[in-house]
Design goal:
The complex is a heterodimer of chains A (about 1100) and B (about 160).
Chain A lengths: L4 H28 L3 H20 L3 H18 L7 H19 L10 H25 L5 E2 L29 H10 L5 E3 L14 H10 L2 E8 L8 H13 L3 E6 L15 E8 L3 H7 L4 E8 L13 H9 L10 E2 L6 H19 L25 E3 L16 H9 L14 H13 L5 H28 L2 H24 L1 E3 L1 H4 L2 H12 L3 E6 L4 E3 H22 L3 H6 L6 E10 L2 E8 L6 H10 L5 H5 L3 H6 L22 H10 L3 E7 L3 E9 L4 E9 L2 E6 L3 E6 L5 E4 L2 E6 L2 E7 H4 L12 E6 L4 E6 L1 E11 L11 E6 L5 E5 L1 H7 L8 H14 L6 E7 L2 E7 L4 E4 L6 E3 L2 E6 L2 E6 L1 H4 L10 E7 L2 E7 L1 E6 L15 E7 L2 E6 L1 H30 L32 H13 L5 H9 L14 H4 L16
Parallel strand pairs in A: 10-12, 17-26, 21-23, 28-37, 32-34
Antiparallel strand pairs in A: 1-7, 2-8, 3-5, 3-6, 4-5, 9-11, 12-13, 13-15, 14-15, 16-17, 16-24, 18-22, 19-20, 20-21, 22-23, 24-25, 25-26, 27-28, 27-35, 29-33, 30-31, 31-32, 33-34, 36-37
Chain B lengths: L1 H12 L4 E9 L2 E6 L3 E6 L13 E7 L2 E6 L1 H4 L12 E5 L6 E5 L1 E9 L12 H4 L2 E7 L2 E6 L1 H6 L1
Classes of the chains: A alpha+beta (about 1100), B alpha+beta (about 160).
Chain lengths: ~1100, ~160
Amino acid sequence: MSIDYDSILADFVIEANELLDRAESSVLDLEKGYQKELVDQIFRTVHTIKGNAGLFDLSRISKLAHTLENVLNLVRNGELDIKMNVIDDVLISLDRLREMIRNIKDSESYEIDDLLQKLSKFTSKKDEPKKEAAPAQTPSPMTIVPVTAAPVAPPAAERVEAKKDEPVEAAPEKDIEKNVLNEKVKTEVALNVNRPEVKSTLKIPAKLLNTAVETKQTLSFVYINLLNQDEKTLHAVLQKLKPVFDTKSVLMHGLYEDKIPMLKDTWQFVPYYLILLTQESAAMLLDRANVRYEKIRVLYEPEKSGVAKTTDTPQVKEIVQESKVVSEPVAVKVKEEIQEKEVANATTKVTEEIQDSKENEVKVAEQIEVIPESGIQKEQISSSVAAIIPQATPENREHETAEANIMEQNITSESYPTSDKREDAPHIPQKSGENVSDTHLKVPVKLIDTLINLAGETVIARNEMMQKIDHFSDPALEMVGKRVSYLVTRLQEGIMRTRLQELNTVFQRLPRVVRDASQNTGKKVELVVEGGDVELDKTLIDAMGESIMHMIRNAVDHGLESPAERLRVGKKEAGIVKVVAQLRGGNVFLSIKDDGRGLNIEKIKSSAVAKGLITKDAASIMTHQEAVELVFMAGLSTADKVTQTSGRGVGMDVVRSNFKKLGGTVDIISEMGHGTTITATLPQTLTIVTCLLIRSSNMLFALPQQNVVELILVDRTQMTSVENHPMYNLRGRLLPILGLSSTLKLSESDSNKEEFIAVVTSERHHFGLLIDEIVNMEEIVVKRLGEHFSGLSFFSGAAIMGDGEAVLILDVPGLAKFSNLQANTNEEALLKEERARSEADQNILSGYLLFSVDKQKFAVPVQSIPRIEKIDNNQIEYFMGLEVVKYRGDVVPIVRLEEFYELEMKQKAIYLIIFTIEGMRIGITATQVYNVVNRLPEIKVGRFEGRSITGHTILNNETTLVLDVIDFLKHLRESRFEEIIEYNKNLREDAREATRAEVVTPSIEEIKYYPKPDAEKRSVHSDVSRTEQIRSSRREEEESAQVGSAPIAETFRAPSSPAGNGSTQHKEDEGKVIGGVWKKVEVKEQK
Amino acid sequence: MERDIEQLSSGIGTTDANLQILTWTIGTQLFGMDISECKEVVRNRQVTIVPYAPDNISGIVNLRGEVVTVLDLRKLLGYGKDTVIRESVIICLKSAHSNVAIKADTISDVIEITKDRLESPPAHLNEMETRFIRGVVLTDKGLVVILNPNEIVKQ
């Protein structure tokens, strides 16, 4: 069998990094307060690394880890206080290890002597005084009793269980171990029962035993069967056990793993163990609680004889009687200097116990201890059975009572090192060892990518198959097809999810960052992290990790005040940095918030001016938010001096461009004196991007939706050129135009087919892309282009469409760069201005929708595009005597204008225009739907009186009634409509409860009414141009047969010229709306 | 198809002495390549043209969810302009680091030859042309130009 050294080494690197992460976070927790299990965990981690490094002959890593281990061991045994300098050195050592592991090939060239020296200072410091004190101070010396044929006990400090065939480990390390050995306060007895298949190691920390000895109480191991307690439910069993726990005599407890039956067996018992420290015998306690026990094993009894057999439990006696199977010699090794009479006693007892355990070959493995994973087999419960033997066994049952309090104190005491802390320790290795390895698999990313590809391909094949199946019209086949289809969808979803990783992989590094930053700055920081379970594409996590760190450092360094300053302004001494991640829609929303002093606007401005980034004049007219945004400019730093933490001026601009590269955004809000909040959004996965599919010269392209600002229908009259560069007059501003076809040289001649402009934006550019056709919006899977195309900056990749065609994805910044477009950096300001203007315009009438009912023409003022549905007579229902249709979960009443106005009706109404007014939808019937016009000629009032009629106007020689829908609704409300409103409200609430998603109605169908049209004085600015809305309109398009939303939308979005110039509002051929043509709107049939 | 080829190559096998050659035509010329270097042959895939791509690249195509670069052998070997043939065949090459395919007009048989029949490229070809050619072999169907996939992938 050949071993691929490199791949094993790679595994080691991955694993070591994980271990170091874990160790680091434990160290940081340790800083907050001593916890025994944390030290144990760090110790184990370092030990594993050491062991693995040894396998690969990485002597330096191994050596450093070993030295670190020694220090940790001192800490673990309570001989070295965890002080700042210890933590620091440990962290530095971990860092060094990490670095060495990162450059694993060169790890031998790293200098580690400095650290070794530092670390050995701790060990040697402790060594010298201890050496003399040791014999006296350590009443609980090392007792190792390997039952195996092993001639020598494994060095205890190694904490590696010697297996039968590996009796001694790490011989060269013995010298160092000796020191540690001397100080061992640990008693450890290893028993190896002659049952290789039941390899169980249960060890109890010696401290427990010490406690027992000191408090003169009985320490017993009890093993009970949870299913044998005459209770029906587990809960009841636990209730039954409660009195036992209430006595506070339980030091450790847990599932007794060695006895857990195989899953295939019928479960007759659920083994559970308790380690009890009691004054009376454990049996009595349990009997009192009416708990049935399988076995009690007394580990220590404060009586004269150290013989374990003197137990009350009949079970053990029985077992002893069964005893016949002693098969191996028992070797007892006891350190010479600690041989005292207790030890002698202990030895005797050990021997006897061993015999006990051997005799009772099935059940005697009762001792438990933390077993750090051996270097080779990490986190594996090692193979021997160990028992703890008290080193001193004076027993006096009568004396029990007096010590009760002492024991109590020991257990509850928070000071360290206390013995009771150890009780939790055994759970950790089992937890981390089993959970991680049992529930997680390491899978190469490449394999996952292959699976994703295959899943995509399967979907395409599935689509093809479904089409074929349709030809057969065989119900059975269709059934199978549908099932396959469903399964394929599920499969694909599942596989896509495998690329997602929890944000915790980044978040767990944050405490360290905060710690370092707070140490460097001397500020006190409290870090709050939420949402570490949010999942994100692995590439994104890797790419944004550094940015998050940077923002955190910023928050601590710039954001938070010094403790003194905080106290002065009445804040808590420790500043709070809060990191929150949430999943919203398909995006991950991240916010990093500090409660510090906020950004100093004046300082930022003056710094920007001083660095020549903005002019003084510009600075003086800046709004607060604009000034805040300055921090995103390259080269700006407000830090007075460059510190290790920040101030180099390459900060937030890099962060922002990083996020932009990943398809996200970064924004900052700051309030003087109250802190700064940075919010960032990211798509959950990079591999799926929402794109607008467009066509140019018969080629399909994908345009990332995040780049698209709006889509407009070309009005040729607005096309101009500046120095031969085409420009477009968009709402009074010149927009540079790129013809996609000509830029990419797709066709020889300049086609006049280019009817649309996609206004696109990137970080530095804002321009219009001239295209032939807008196809639709689609979520596509991004694939990389081969290296042959690396020179083509204007494609960011390719996507595979449902029909299997490969489509190129346009890269907007690349296109701009390729065409030598000047960066228009003030675009952001421009965009904002536009946004502000369109917001201001929200309340201003935008246009009139023209439609007819039979011959009568109507105009309705609309702010944005109403939904237009084709009436399907089958869908019309009757509700409380009214005609209604169901629409998006609402019951929408239908109003027939012909009835309302008693119009002559020759043609049937085939359309339904759905308005949403004050949250209420109504549908108005129409025989034909025309255009949206920006303005109407003068509206004359009075001649045509009628309910809800604003007035009339003459449009294209046709008298057109202008409808006042608000008034209209008012009339309707007076009738039975109220009931429908009420009904819908309930309906909606129900729906909201049922599914929380999809309640938001897209704004595109929200229509605002302008009660008194005063159109002549106004120019129109579209507010429906945001891509978000395009998107929603696209979405809706799929859902319903819709009257050419695109034509209406585009016309409607067609830019208007400044006020008063009414006749150039539209494309020439259709532009003369006023007194012009009634343009018919085509209806797309539902697929 | 992939499996077919693999079976072929493993079943009969390109032994030490023998070569399994997949052959195809471009125009009237027969080309061939060691079958163990070929991954898959697909027909009727629409090749998406990539604007501004190097001359010798036809475009990209979707092969099992992978975007594969399609090389134009005509251009590569200097055979002049690609006459438009709708029914082209795409031969995907095995390559560790990139997805590359070549376009052929029609696919032909798999032939087995002994290695010693492989002759060096004709001397009158220039260096540019010989780079991609591993050798030529004379068969009953005519001269087959055996290509060197490693050089092609490098392109």
